[in-house]
Amino acid sequence: MKINLVLLASSAIALIPHAASAQSAETRAIQLDEVVVEGAGNGQSGAINANGYVATSTRSATKTDTPILEAPQSISTVTQEQLEDRKPQTLLDALAYTPGTSVTNYGFDPRYDAFTIRGVDVTYTGVFRDGLRQVNSPNGLFRLEPYGLEGIAILRGPAASIYGASSTGGIVDLISKRPTFLPFREVEVQTGSYGRLQGVFDLSGPVGSDQTLFYRLTGLAREAGTEIGAVKDDRVFIAPAITWKPTADTTLTVLGEYMDSTTGGTAAYVNEYAPYVDRQGNITYKSVGATRQFLGDERYNDFRQKQGRIGYEFEHRFNDMFTLRQRTRFSALGTNQEYVSSGSPGLVRETNWGIVSDTHLESRVRTGAVDHTILTGVDVSRLSYRSKEGFGGVPVGVDPVLAYRSNQTQTLTGIYVQDQLKWQNWRLTLGGRHDWLSSDFASGGTIFNRDDTKFTGRAALGYVTDFGLAPYVSWGTSFTPNPGTLLSGAVAEPTTGEQVELGVKYDIPGYNASLRAAVFDLRQENAVVYEVVNGLNQQVQLDLRSQGIELEAVASLTEGLNLQASYSYNDARILKLTPETEGNRLTAVPYHMASVWLDYTVQDGAAKGLGIAGGVRYVGSSLGDNLSRAVLDNEPRTYLDAAIRYDLENIDPSLRGMRLQAHASNLLDEVSQVCTSGYCYFDEGRKVIASLRYRW
């Protein structure tokens, strides 16, 4: 769900100040005895440690090196090996097999990574990068290049007690590729559907022989089309990184990125409208379904975005008791979004910049028979954006006058403390944080200023048995500032939330396999959702309740078989919006979702090194708007994905390091209408990509 979705139904929308805001919604890891260190060729432990598909620990959950089994929270991961096997092209592709995560709400729309966790929209408030909040503005959301990732950690449920501004549904922490201690190099070329041509490289290793300075340089260039002729998928990406490790106790890593990408200003289709009469007798026009007519115009539909970030991670271990860490990142982006609706051109130009910094001290102490891992920290973030919008009044191909302008600045400061207590088999986590938020918004001579303060907390209790079973119960709250304005014109209120979760994890003894289950009940007040009225999409706020069950299994077995499977049941209901919607199911949240991905590599014989994989994703029925109009009901859908690969060294040893791979998403070309917030789209059709990689 997002602010700028091209949903303009007629040229009359040009008279609405927020016209442009109507933009349509849119080497394997090294095998160690027990742990695989993420990053091919890596020689260091990172933010996610895993053995194949099975992650053993991640700092994302607690900001400390805590085994996933012992972290009393629902956690999923996408490891480096999963990324290599599935080759996701977007964040949504990478999360598609994660329980509780819905990534199909807007059909095909490459402009934004819009998704929900546990029925809660996390597009703006749930994406983190390397443990720091990724700041976004209404039309300026950072695009992700999956090739630049080592892995992804998905935390379901509130994490505000240590992360501050974040969604009640959870957060997704994107882990950037870091320098490796061992030399690693790879290049790859790709081709595929819609004239796709792509080249990538990834180079890393030590600088010099003293083993104190290490580098990594990752890059990508792509020229491609999509199933909509007016929508491009072009990209240039470069990500340099340096690690300086003067001693065993001190590490400084600098991470950078620059990306220039172009896609379509709209990827939407024309919807049909019919009058709708509410209980008060008011008449509005609402969608009754999508047509196959493209809404925009290929002559004026480029959405170009330039983005960059530079930051560092510093860690110093004073002794066995104290470790200091600091992370800081500066980021900025600029957009130029062209679109055409009802024959008139529209343009949105937006710039934003943000700085985020988190400093914390980890203290390990013992009181009697209880071990404590205490985290005390402070973080500060600042977001500032400027938006200019214009619509109509000029021929297609000419930029309209940018008559509507707005800007906003948000500053958030938080202090937090967390104590992880360990006594025999018991694990108790207690955390608390206090935030101060300042927000200044200006538009058309009108200024809105507000200051908020909020305490958030977390308490969780778990029991870790000697045979790998770990039940837990947790409670947590959240606090989230929201960028932009509401349909009424007022600044969006901060969102607050609370959740209770009961779960169990089981690491199967003797196998590299893990089973996880969780039951949750969460509530949000002033949650931001979107409503489409007369073709115009705007933010509104509501209170909601979401309840559900999640099951997950991951395994990497010695016989060459990898497995990831999940099932989710989610009942999300509106508690407060309008009299007509109270008690209704929340739009586009299916009761049932399930997925399974199987990957097998032949271990010996003539086919040794051949890898075959397949995945099935099931998305149950859901409602197309919050009014529960049957005409917009979304039918159940099933998608089939597949992949095949072969290491050429099994033919000829001189071809060592070369791999052929092909991947198909939505192999059976399942394309259905999907409606969200009262507007309808179509799923992305079949896409096939083939690649040749050389690693040395």
UniProtKB/TrEMBL annotation:
Localization, UniProt: Cell outer membrane
Assigned GO CC terms: cell outer membrane
Gene Ontology molecular-function annotations: siderophore uptake transmembrane transporter activity; signaling receptor activity
Any one GO BP annotation for this protein: siderophore transport
Species name: Microvirga subterranea
Membrane topology: Multi-pass membrane protein
A Pfam family it matches: TonB_dep_Rec_b-barrel
Annotated family: Belongs to the TonB-dependent receptor family.
Annotated signal peptide: 1-22
Name this polypeptide is given: Iron complex outermembrane receptor protein
Gene3D superfamilies referenced in this protein's UniProt entry, alphabetically: TonB-dependent receptor, beta-barrel domain, TonB-dependent receptor, plug domain
Record-annotated membrane-spanning stretches: none
Keyword tags: Cell outer membrane, Ion transport, Iron, Iron transport, Membrane, Receptor, Signal, TonB box, Transmembrane, Transmembrane beta strand, Transport
Residue span, TonB-dependent receptor plug domain: 69-171
Residue span(s) of domain TonB-dependent receptor-like beta-barrel: 244-667
Broad class of where this protein is predominantly found: membrane
InterPro entries: Beta-barrel_TonB, Beta-barrel_TonB_sf, Plug_dom, Plug_dom_sf, TonB-dep_rcpt-like, TonB_sidphr_rcpt
Superkingdom of origin: Bacteria
